[in-house]
């Protein structure tokens, strides 16, 4: 996850070096410098929290063994203290002791394909156009809206965000435009061109697997109007009607090592290198997709989610992507639309802020006819496809097809209530939903599992995320009692309230930098860096269980009626994302078909039932008004 691009960039062969040209903005810098630095939590506190989090998910024997390892690890003058001192020294020397490590380990060293495994997708409300004119006009409005947002970034007028009255780090907003991931043989890099001496003034548009450079500013620096953009998009559409082109973009969907090796072959050719560089430098990408095959209304949302996440495969729109590009808006002829983004640069919230701004912008009435100045033809990006590259494209198509067939994704609009109900009960909506997830999982499997929920560390300079562990002894007590007829309903209500409050308290600790997951990761990486052998604590069965997140979840709230989604992080797990609206909740649930034990639709059904049962329980036993 991206710290300053200037510091983390590794220049790939044949690319510009943007970082030496970067000037950090002054007002932005002043805000950033005033933010507190991420603390290194006390060692004993982290280990106590770790032991507590293990109790609902490991056996008594495993827990007893881990307790012993924890005691050995934290003995006075022992290995734990030595690693802790190393981390504290690192924290004194760096802007954020975690951010570079996290960027490398969570993203750039991760070798699975970014498609499904890493890049989140976003499903936007279906638009009511059904023809080419509507598609191109909506795409033009989106471009205009993003450029309007970019103006605020460039001029540093983007309002600072706050959480609980505390200002948040705004760095991620400066990473999402004009940036791109670049494959490397062992580790990738992220390049950001937004602060180069001559920042990019073009976007990339893809139609029919063909890429175009579209300049979106006039020579005087003013952006093209929606009408002018529409004319340019029409030119692109008309000049890319033949679909007999090789879908070179599909290469970006492959395993990172395979893509890195194909990339080096691809950019040996100067024409290819210039085209790739143009895509990487572009402000963002717009994908003009062919309509999806018709499906039933019930299956529509789940199919479109797949379309946003992976493009539907080599026969459909997967060649219409450059999956390494940080931001790609997708607009199809049938009104389906959304985006896919490369995760290294940012978490969901900054992307959602941009999307909310753009969607509001698309509703603005048009300014009326703009002066139709003659505009140059958008430049088609050429690729010389050798037999070797063609072979790589075929392999990427086959691999992607296997991945797509394995993905099981269900979209659920929960219509019965939204965040209004938990709020009416003085309960945190997020914690309430997390407890419903715990109940749904327990009803299917009969036990709790390691559960990851993303917590923002943006109260700190260059902060990214830590983990909220939603499975606790309090959540376990509640889910075990829920279907137990020997427990009275008032007791169940108390257990539910206690579980929700415990989750809320954990969330508060996590956003203050007091969760244990990133601290443990830091101690482990410090051990690797110090070249001492890995402490037993990290070789322990309990540690493996704790890091195997069968439920990987994220709340991504938005003003737009949309929802994000991503693939599970383990082969036998689920990916769950949700956007709680006032009177309904949008959910996405993903699993893998290759695991016989998981089913996205089954978890979605159980989740719906759990939410209804929890509401009924609270409504049947209202709290006395004080």
What does the model show?
The chain is an alpha+beta fold. It is built from 20 helices and 18 strands. It has an eight-stranded mixed beta sheet, sandwiched between helices. The chain has a six-stranded mixed beta sheet with strand order 12-18-17-15-13-14. A hairpin with a 2-residue loop joins strand 6 (202-207) and strand 7. Helix 7 packs across helix 8 (226-238). The protein is globular, with a radius of gyration of 25 Å. It starts with a helix and ends in a 6-residue tail after the last helix.
Overall structural class, as computed from helix and strand content, comes to alpha+beta
How are the strands of the biggest sheet laid out side by side? 11-7-6-8-9-10-1-16
Show unreliable segments. 1-25
**CA radius of gyration:** 25 Å
Largest sheet: 8 strands, mixed
> What fraction, in percent, of the residue positions are helical?
40-55%
The overall strand count is 18
Strand content: 5-15%
Would you spell out the secondary-structure blueprint of this structure?
Blueprint: H1 5-8, H2 26-34, H3 43-54, H4 60-73, H5 79-93, H6 99-108, E1 121-123, H7 132-154, E2 162-163, E3 166-167, E4 179-182, E5 189-192, E6 202-207, E7 210-215, H8 226-238, H9 256-266, H10 270-281, E8 285-289, H11 297-310, E9 327-332, E10 337-341, H12 348-362, E11 379-380, H13 387-406, E12 407-414, H14 420-424, H15 429-445, E13 451-456, E14 465-469, H16 473-482, H17 489-511, H18 517-529, H19 541-546, E15 551-555, E16 563-565, E17 574-580, E18 585-592, H20 600-620
Parallel strand pairs: 6-8, 8-9, 13-15, 15-17
Antiparallel strand pairs: 1-10, 1-16, 2-3, 4-5, 6-7, 7-11, 9-10, 12-18, 13-14, 17-18
């Amino acid at each position: 996850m991206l710290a300053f691009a200037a510091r983390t960039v590794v220049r790939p062969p044949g690319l510009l070096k943007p970082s030496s040209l970067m000037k950090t903005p002054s007002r932005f810098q002043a805000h950033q410098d005033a933010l507190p630095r991420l603390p290194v939590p006390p060692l004993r506190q982290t280990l106590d929290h770790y032991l507590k989090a293990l109790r609902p998910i490991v056996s008594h024997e495993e827990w007893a063994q881990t307790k012993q390892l924890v005691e050995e690890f934290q003995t006075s003058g022992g290995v734990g203290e030595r690693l802790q001192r190393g981390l504290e020294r690192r924290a004194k020397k760096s802007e954020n002791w975690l951010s570079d490590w996290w960027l490398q380990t969570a993203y750039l060293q991760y070798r699975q394909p970014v498609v499904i495994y890493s890049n989140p997708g976003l499903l936007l409300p279906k638009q009511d156009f059904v023809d080419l004119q509507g598609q191109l006009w909506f795409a033009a409005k989106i471009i205009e809206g993003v450029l309007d947002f970019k103006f605020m970034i460039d001029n540093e007028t983007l309002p600072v965000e706050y959480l609980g009255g505390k200002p948040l780090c705004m760095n991620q907003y400066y990473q999402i435009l004009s940036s791109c991931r670049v494959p490397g043989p062992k580790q990738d890099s992220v390049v950001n061109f937004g602060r180069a001496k001559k920042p990019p003034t073009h976007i990339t548009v893809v139609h029919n697997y063909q890429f175009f450079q579209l300049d979106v500013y006039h020579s005087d620096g003013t952006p093209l109007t929606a009408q002018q953009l529409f004319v340019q998009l029409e030119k692109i559409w008309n000049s890319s009607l033949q679909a007999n082109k090789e879908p070179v973009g599909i290469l970006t969907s492959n395993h990172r090592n395979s893509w890195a090796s194909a990339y080096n072959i691809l950019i040996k050719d100067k024409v290819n290198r210039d085209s790739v560089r143009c895509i990487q430098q572009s402000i963002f990408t717009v994908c003009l997709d062919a309509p999806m095959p018709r499906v039933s209304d019930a299956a529509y949302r789940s199919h479109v989610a797949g379309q946003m996440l992976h493009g539907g495969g080599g026969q459909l729109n997967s060649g219409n992507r450059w999956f390494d590009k940080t931001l790609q808006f997708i607009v199809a002829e049938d009104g389906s639309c959304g985006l896919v983004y490369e995760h290294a640069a940012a978490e969901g919230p900054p992307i959602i802020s941009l999307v909310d701004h753009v969607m509001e912008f698309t509703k603005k009435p048009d300014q009326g006819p703009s002066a139709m100045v003659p505009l140059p033809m958008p430049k088609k990006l050429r690729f010389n496809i050798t037999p070797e590259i063609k072979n790589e494209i075929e392999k990427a198509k086959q691999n992607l097809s296997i991945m797509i067939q394995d993905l099981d994704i269900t979209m659920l609009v929960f219509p019965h209530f939204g965040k209004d109900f938990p709020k009416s009960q003085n309960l945190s909506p997020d914690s309430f939903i997390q407890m419903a997830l715990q109940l749904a999982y327990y009803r299917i499997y009969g036990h709790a599992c390691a559960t990851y929920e993303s917590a923002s560390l943006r109260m700190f300079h260059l902060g990214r995320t830590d983990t909220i562990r939603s499975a606790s002894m309090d959540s376990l007590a509640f889910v075990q009692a829920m279907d137990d007829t020997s427990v009275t309903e008032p007791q169940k209500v108390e257990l539910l309230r206690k579980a929700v409050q415990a989750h809320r308290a954990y969330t508060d600790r996590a956003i203050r930098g007091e969760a244990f997951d990133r601290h443990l990761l830091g101690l482990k990486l410090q051990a690797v860096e110090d070249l001492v052998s890995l402490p037993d604590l990290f070789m322990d069965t309990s540690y493996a269980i704790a890091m195997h997140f069968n439920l990987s979840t994220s709340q991504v709230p938005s003003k737009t009626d949309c929802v994000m989604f991503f693939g599970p992080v383990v082969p036998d797990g689920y990916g769950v994302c949700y956007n709680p609206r006032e009177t309904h909740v949008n959910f996405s649930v993903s699993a893998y078909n290759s695991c016989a034990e998981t089913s996205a639709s089954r978890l979605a059904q159980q989740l719906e039932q759990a939410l209804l049962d929890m509401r009924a329980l609270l409504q049947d036993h209202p709290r006395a008004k004080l």
